[in-house]
Amino acid sequence: MLKRLCAVLCGALLVAASAFAQSGDGTVLGTVLDASGAGVPNAEVQLLNANTGVKNSTKTDTNGSYRFNNILIGNYSVTATAPGFTTTTIKDLQVELNKATTANIKVDGVGKITTDFMKVAGFPTMGFNTTSTATWGNVRMRVALVLDVTGSMADDGKMDAMKPAAKSLVDQLSPLAKNPGDIYISIVPFSKAG
């Protein structure tokens, strides 16, 4: 009887200990992003518990996403490192009980170039950082509307259908121009040589 009571008590203690251990967990997840907002695959992500010094590491997947499960609640920092990018750290990340904490990390491009001229001044290499920006106006858009002038457009309401279509195209393109000359729209007369 005493053995049976001890076995039941030990089992109850194991269940209670297991439940207690699971109740102190949270999740940290996010995406490592480059300057354009694209995910950085195979980046090293390190999660550091600020109170205990315990580190966990993982790599991002092909979309730049990462996830740490079963993380003890507390204060953390998360650091992302990838070849060709800056190392970026987010500090004071609070992991809460049974909650997912999201930490998206932005990294910028970085590198070094060898210098010949600057070696004289003691700089054999010079570092650089990059970011990306998409701008309108560096390339001008040219649109040519070819108009059949043989009279065939008058048949079957073709001209009546073309007018609102051409106007709609012009109305959609015009607001995209940031500077005069960004968009040119031309009408090219066409007739079949017979």
In angstroms, what separates the terminal alpha carbons? 112 Å
Shape, principal axes of CA atoms: elongated
CATH class bucket of the largest domain: Mainly Beta
Class from helix and strand fractions: alpha/beta
Strand-residue fraction?
35-45%
CATH 2nd-level architecture of the largest domain: Sandwich
CATH homologous superfamily assignment of the largest domain: Carboxypeptidase-like, regulatory domain
- Give, in order, the helices and strands: HEEEEEEEEEEEHE
Evaluate the radius of gyration.
32 Å
Total domain count: 2
Mean pLDDT: 76
How many strands in all? 12
Specify the number of helices.
Answer: 2
Low-confidence stretches: 12-22, 131-138
CATH topology of the largest domain: Immunoglobulin-like
- What helical percentage do the residues reach? 10-25%
- Major sheet characteristics: 4 strands, mixed
Task: Name its key features.
194 residues, 19% helix, four-stranded mixed β-sheet, 12 strands, Immunoglobulin-like, alpha/beta, four-stranded antiparallel β-sheet
Describe the 3D structure.
With 194 residues, the chain is of the alpha/beta class. It folds into 2 domains: 26-134, Carboxypeptidase-like, regulatory domain (Immunoglobulin-like, Sandwich), CATH 2.60.40; 141-190, no CATH class. The chain has 2 helices and 12 strands; from the N terminus they run H-E-E-E-E-E-E-E-E-E-E-E-H-E. The strands form 4 sheets. Strands 1, 4, 7 and 8 form a 4-stranded mixed β-sheet that branches. Strands 3-2-5-6 form a 4-stranded antiparallel β-sheet, with no helix packed on it. Strands 9-10 form a two-stranded antiparallel ribbon. The chain is elongated and about 85 Å long. Mean pLDDT is 76; it is low at 12-22 and 131-138.
